[in-house]
Amino acid sequence: MTRIFGFLLATFIAATAHAASLADLTNADAASGLKGGLAESASKAVSLLGTENGFYGNPKLKIPLPPSMQKVEGAMRMMGMKKQADELVLSMNRAAEAAMPEAQALLEQSIKQMTVQDAKGILTGGDTAATQYFKRTTEKQLTERFLPIVKKSTEKVGLAQHYNTIAGQGATLGLIKEDQATVERYVTQKALDGLYATIGEQEKALRSNPVGASSDLVKKVFGAVK
Length: 226
Prior knowledge:
Elements: H1 2-24, H2 27-49, H3 67-70, H4 73-78, H5 82-99, H6 101-112, H7 116-123, H8 129-154, H9 158-172, H10 183-208, H11 216-224
Helix pairs in contact: 2-6, 2-7, 2-10, 2-11, 5-8, 5-10, 6-8, 8-10
């Protein structure tokens, strides 16, 4: 009985210490550790995606032909357009990879502009609370920065131009969604989806295993909310 009581007491003390650990951090330490952790996650995501095959070589993130083209992809290949279809898929993924470095500065700016309320929500939020914050604060600007880069890369492909002509008419008639009205808009959205998904994976990894962080303060902060 004494041993059982001792074990329960030790468990209670450990749980209490863990629960109080976040409160024991100063606001400055909590904010600094949080921002450091987010900067790490964002930087890793951009580095992973902004290299050759960051999208094209990743089965989870590889950007396929737009849905409207996928419906006739088989017919295209049977008609001898396999090369053109493959060329378009490659150019779309290369465009997404080329656009990624543009994200770094905006993600860093988003971290610097984070309020105390934002920080509290992220620290006590779910596994991807930081990712949702990034999406909320950067998606509009990143869309504007990605679009011209993606357009420059894909407009060289004849099939992309052909798609834009037809899809544009389809969007006007309400037959095609606006985000698929042009190849560049479609690829830009897919690139952003891939970026936030990858940041989310990095965030989950940091929360589940803060020991892997490069900074002691980051380990301390995320260890307190683990």
